[in-house]
């Protein structure tokens, strides 16, 4: 009998502190107009006290469990996607086993930046269909704000990123009609590593971090914005069309498309390339900024809770980010 993987529940959590573009105008030489015109972002959430990615993940995971009608002890494995883990090590997934009171549960941290959700979903799908685990908790969670250069020097990057967490519980489905991951596709190309990266601390340097490096701001993310834009606008639609083709579908079959919330202008370029009408794409970057691995699961949870995505509909997701990495997936919800 064929086994499929379906989404059992979703949840998200963002910190309460709202940081508007006007708030950023007080920290750096920028304007609300510049930020909105280039990125579509109006506000984002930033933590206001010591909080790790796993702390944001806990309420998101509890909401997903509640929707699924499950308890934490029902989870067989955790996949935690983040580029801003609580600590360099151990992984935030390990911390989740304590947050949720499920010691002994296997926890895998993955480092695929904005594409973390698609990479994680592919792993969860393979585990479930191979019979390794029955219920997998995926978490994408980020605390960017503590790692941004909020001076004018870092303005091109720091206005873009926000903090937040999204969670999705994947489980077994016995018929494709009842919900199924229909196809997943992921890729990576390290030739672009330097176009979006944080250079230090780095194990390849002795010492890993230096005062001079910090003075130069090399511990903050650096981005070649134009290159990111150019490659994302090409790779994302390509990945989505390929993922659709893998399960015999076309763009016309998609009820809802959720792109990674990198930048509203990238989403618009992808929408245009795919020829999707406005009511079949969902963007929320205006309110949260770019939350990398958390962005698709946060948007997905909003769509499930506000009725934009209903059982039986076809969902497509597409992601692109540092690495460069990319991915797309098609799901019958
Ligand atoms: N406020 C005001 N001015 C700014 C800001 C800011 N926050 N940031 C940069 N500028 C200035 C620059 O210094 C430059 O000034 P100059 O002409 O005097 O040198 C000017 O604005 C134009 O800079 P560009 O970098 O050429 O601006 P561009 O039009 O390319 O827009 C942006 C920059 C928004 C980053 C754009 O390249 C972009 O959207 N790239 C995609 C990157 C992205 O979305 N990344 C998301 C994260 S990665 C991911 O999730 C995939």
Describe the protein in words:
Helix content is 33%, strand content 23%. It has two domains: 4-178, Thiolase/Chalcone synthase (Peroxisomal Thiolase, Chain A, domain 1, 3-Layer(aba) Sandwich); 180-332, 3-Layer(aba) Sandwich (Peroxisomal Thiolase, Chain A, domain 1). It is globular. The protein contains eleven helices and 13 strands. The chain is of the alpha/beta class. Helix 3 (53-68) crosses helix 4 and helix 8 packs parallel to helix 9 (264-274). The site of acetyl coenzyme *A has 24 residues, from helix 2, helix 6, helix 8, helix 9 and strand 12.
What order do the helices and strands come in, and which of them pair?
Layout: E1 4-13, E2 18-20, H1 21-25, H2 32-39, E3 43-45, H3 53-68, E4 77-81, H4 92-99, E5 107-110, H5 116-130, E6 136-142, H6 155-158, E7 164-173, E8 180-188, E9 196-197, H7 211-215, E10 222-223, H8 225-246, E11 256-259, H9 264-274, H10 285-288, H11 295-305, E12 314-321, E13 325-332
Parallel strand pairs: 4-5, 4-6, 11-12
Antiparallel strand pairs: 1-7, 2-3, 6-7, 8-13, 9-10, 12-13
Helix pairs in contact: 3-4, 8-9
Bound molecules: acetyl coenzyme *A.
Acetyl coenzyme *A binds next to helix 2, helix 6, helix 8, helix 9 and strand 12.
